[in-house]
Every structure is written in structure tokens, then in C-alpha cells.
Amino acid sequence: MNIDYSLLTIEMLTAGLALGLLVLSLVVPGDQRKGFGYLTAAGLAIIFAISFAFNGVNKEIIGGMYLIDDFGNFFKQLALVAGVLVALASIPYVEKLESYRGEYYSLLVFATLGMVVMVGAGDLISLYLGLELMTITFFVLTAFKRGDSKSAEAGIKYVLLGAMSSAILLYGLSMLYGVAKTTVISELVSTIQAGQISPALILGLMFLVGGFGFKISAVPFHMWSPDVYEGAPTPVTSYLAVGSKAAAFAAFVRIFMGGMPQIQEIWIALFAGLSALSMIIGNLIAIPQTNIKRMLAFSGVAQAGYILTGMVAGTNAGIKGLAFYLMIYVFATIGAFTVAIGFSNATGSDEIKDMAGLSQRNPLMAAVMLVCLLSMAGIPPLAGFAGKLFLFSAIVAQGKLWLALVGLIMSMVSVYYYLSVAKSMYMGEAADPSPIEIPGSLKLVLIVSMVVTIFLGIYPAPLTGLAEAAASVFALK
Q1: What pTM, to 2 d.p., does this model score?
Q2: Is residue 347 part of a domain?
Q3: What distance in Å separates the CA atoms of residue 394 and residue 397, rounded to the nearest whole number?
Q4: What 3-state class would DSSP assign to 299?
Q5: 3-state helix, strand, coil in the chain (%, to 5)
Q6: Residue 316 lies in domain
Q7: In a domain, 456, yes or no
Q8: Is residue 147 part of a domain?
Q9: 38-89 per-position pLDDT tens digit
Q10: Which residue, 123, 124, 162, is CA-closest to 143?
């Protein structure tokens, strides 16, 4: 079998960077590893730039087991840009570690590699390999804060629940293979067209939804996210919140939109229920939260509900909205978590009440947090408004006005708890009025997150074009 290895440039470069960092961590003395964060960010940024050379390339290799197309490339770029931001945001945290600094960044890049493989997978086996590479590295990163009981607890919970969800997902994939007699996703279409819809297939789909539902933290599979988000190192939490979720959604689209569009009426009804429950429960439980990381965890549950509406639409417009929203969600979420990182480093607290007076202590941090939260709420002219407009327009066009109304109402509810954070930052009195200084790497992440969130809200055309190209890979209406 002849393989054009140039098509795997992104994967090979990412793997090479991860292995290179691992080797360097073994040969470079511990006190000289402070530049690893910048090296990781620069390496991922270079790979991100190279990835644009694959825009417009739509090929399959290894008999359809792996796909090089605009959809996969879009989500590879998402994973890479998120990796760059998280690597920069991790620098102050990693500098406090007594050991394993290089290993941290190597694991971060391996997690990125898992996402890259997962979104390009053309069959069930390669998809699961990418998923497990991503998940296992997150197991380690979640418990990376040695000697911290919350981090250890988060790691144990994530290992137990993550292993269970992976087993459920694997069982669903096995049942799907048992019915279709193939692991290639594109060949599932012909199987279903042949009328081979059986109870085993439906049961397999239920297991798939359960397994992927855990990865995207959709209700009722969200029980892990608040404790894991709170206990894990905050940079890891931010990557877990955006990278893992985006890769799982990409796999969702590959299997259901690409492999089983003929039974949309079955899985669309299921996704509609999950979407509504996630939006309602996520937003309502976020209201009483006092810890910023737990609040963002439940906000993430609600965001999964919004993004699922793109799946409910079952059209190219829905996929476009899903892809667009996930990309802008990267910047809003990492921006908000980076503020939490800077504040926690300075004060040792993640409590919302302790953020009182932040606008006087560090105006940049307060401004970025406000912009990112309002974007997630869908307030114009920020990027979140354009993303929700694309998603809700797609489901309204398919006659699901009720779900769009649920989304609009819950978006208004989210404004309440987002503004409670803004109220504390801008109207509260700080117990300690001394200025908060943050490192240059955090400032860069904050500025990039805020500028991109505002820019894509005012001028979404560049990202819209990439999202449309990604959605056009699927032969939907």
C-alpha cells in the first residue's frame, strides 16, 4: 500500500515535537528548563501555520482509515491554537514545579496529538486510538499537582469515570462494527442504505452517545466536570474544557453526520433532548456557584448544549455553526481561565467574592474576563453572538423553534451569573487593594483572547469561510 506521508505532516510534526520535548527533559538540567513553555508554544504555532497549506486538500489514506480534509484540518487548527495558548498560560504554573517541567509540556503536546488523530480518523479504530491517547495524557495532567489533595482527587475521579466512559464508547463501537461488518465510517452509509437497521445498531448508538456525552460534558454525563475542573491545575482545566470537547464533537460529526445520515430522525431526537437538558441544567446550577472554576464548569455544560444544536439541525449550516462556535469558544474559555490562573497565582484563591475590586488591581484581567464571559453569553458585538446566531438559525430553518427558544432563554439566564462576576470585579471593594502583577506570557494570552473575541464578533467572515469549507465535506442539505 503506497502512502503519501506528506499528507501526515501535521501528525508527524506534532509527534516529533512531543518526543523532542520528552528527550530534552531527560538531558537538560532541571534549573535550565524554564524555556520549555515558549519552545512548546513556538513549535505548535509553527505547526499551526503549516496546517494552512492543507486547506482545500481532501484525500483519504490507508484505505479510508485516515482522512485529510477541510473538516479535519479545521479541528486540527483548533487543537493547535488552543495548545499554543495553554502552553503560554502554563508557564507560571510550571515554573513553580520542582520537577517534571519538561514532561508536563511533552504530555500537553501528546494530548494535542491525540486530538489531531481523533479529528482526522476515518475509521472506528483510529478514532479510538486518538481518543485514548488524548484521554490518558489528561489522566496524568489532571493529577499533575503533586502533594495537592484536590488535584489527586480530581485525577482519581477522572480516571475512574473516564475509564468507564471509554469502555462504554468502545462497547458501542464494537456493536456498530458487529452490525456494519466494517470499521470505516464512510462505509456505514451503504450498510444503513441496505436497510440493516437493527436493535443492536440502535443500542450501539446509545452507547456511543453515552461515551461521547462524557467527553463533551453534556447532561446527564457531566457529573465529573465540576470536581475535575476545580481540582486540576487551571491550565490543564482550560485545555480539557476546550480541546477535549472540540475533538469529541468532531468525532460526533464524523460518525453521525458522515456515517449515519439516513437515520437522522433517531439520533436527532436524542441530541435535541440532550441539548435542552444541558442548556437548562448547566445554566441553572451555575447560578449559585461561588468558585470561578466550578462556575465555568457548569457554564461549559451549558455551552455543550448550545453546540449540540448544530448536530440537531442535521445540515451543513448546523455543522458550520458548530465549527464556528467551537473555535470562538476556545478563545473565550482560555481567556477566562487565564484570568483565573493569574488571580489564583497572586492571591491563592479561586473564589468569586475574592475577585472584588479586580478592575482596580489589574484592569486588563477584569476587562478580559468581562469580554470572555459576555461572549459566552452571546452578547453582541462579541464573537459568541455570531456563533449562537449561526447555530440557532440552523435549527430554526429545520423547524425546531422550541429548541432555539430554550437556547435564547438560557442565554439570558447565563447573563445573570456572568454579570455577578463582573459586579464583583467592578463594584466590589478589594480586601487587599495592592496591584496584581502577571507574567508576560499570561498578558499575551489575555490580549490575544480578548482581541480575537472582539474581532471575530465584528468581522466573522474569515472564520466563517473556514467553517463553511469544513462543513462542505459532508453531503448534507
Answers
A1: 0.92
A2: yes
A3: 5
A4: helix
A5: 80, 0, 20
A6: 260-477
A7: yes
A8: no
A9: 889 999 999 999 999 998 888 888 877 888 989 989 999 999 999 999 999 9
A10: 162
